[in-house]
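User: I'm writing a tutorial on reading structure tokens. Could you give me a worked example: one chain, its sequence, then its tokens, then a sentence or two explaining what the tokens reveal?
Assistant: Sure. Here is the example chain.
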Amino acid sequence: MYKIIACDLDETLLSDDRSISKENIEAIQKAKELGVKFVPATGRGYNTVDGTLKELGLYDLENEYVIPSK
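And here are its predicted structure tokens:
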């Protein structure tokens, strides 16, 4: 069983228009329901990923993480 999934944002999770496919959102939600942590990783600063975190339902939650650049 996986405990954590770290995923790059640009050109991996996010499409060219910075959207996330419905299928990916559903897969991430299912993983979360199974107790798997989904951790977005990016070379961008933390403040630039707010919209993505909100779309994934991870924004401002305790015990959720992001790997940002400085």
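What the tokens reveal: The chain has a mean pLDDT of 92. The helical segments are 22-33, 50-56.
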